[in-house]
Amino acid sequence: MDILLIAGLWLDGSAWDDVVPELTALGHRPVPLTLPGQGDGAASATLDDQLEAVLAAVDAATGKPLVVGHSAASTLAWLAADGRPEKVAKVALIGGFPAADGRAYADFFAIEDGVMPFPGWDPFEGADAADLDQQARDRFASAAVPVPEAVAKGVVRLTDERRFDVPVVVVCPEFSPAEAEECIAAGDSPELARATHLEYVDLDSGHWPMATRPRELARVLAEVADS
């Protein structure tokens, strides 16, 4: 199965470099996506530009792909299900829930000169970054790509209720499946609360398992694709 890989904020397709060979060895075709505004100098890129690139990848896939969204990009993966409900086989969300219709995509940190730069590690101390050593943190920070303002503040638009019939798997790294279920039951994710087919998979890692547990993450994604 084609597996489209969308990394979260400040990351491009290279974030999946250690996951790609593992997925290939497991018999799948991983397709890491580098979207407009992710290192191409296009600070004017918008959320719609990024979504168009994701939908183009869905359209180009062989058969129905598994669309994987990490962190904030869980919303992009869910937007793909909304835009192509008949073409997306499944959605896997790693460490994130999709934003609801009418909400900003990822307006979480300060905007400087038209972009949202990586804010440093203070906001992520604790479970998020617990398994990242100093070398890994330095490598992440040096490679971080500022997020264009029109992406971070882009308004999410969901229009096709057939998205709720696309199977969803929530991969739980820095939180447990029980905690994820509790959050959804409490109303933290109105979208996932309406999903017809919703499963949870535990993964013992911090927020960036593609960097710290690539083999384990690949195995989880392969199992999602195969099931």
Automatic annotation (TrEMBL):
Gene3D superfamilies: alpha/beta hydrolase (3.40.50.1820). InterPro entries: AB_hydrolase_1 (IPR000073), AB_hydrolase_fold (IPR029058). The keyword Hydrolase applies. It comes from the Bacteria. Keywords: Hydrolase. Residues 3-219 form the AB hydrolase-1 domain. This is Alpha/beta hydrolase. GO terms for molecular function: hydrolase activity. It comes from Streptomyces adustus. The lineage of its organism: Bacteria, Bacillati, Actinomycetota, Actinomycetes, Kitasatosporales.
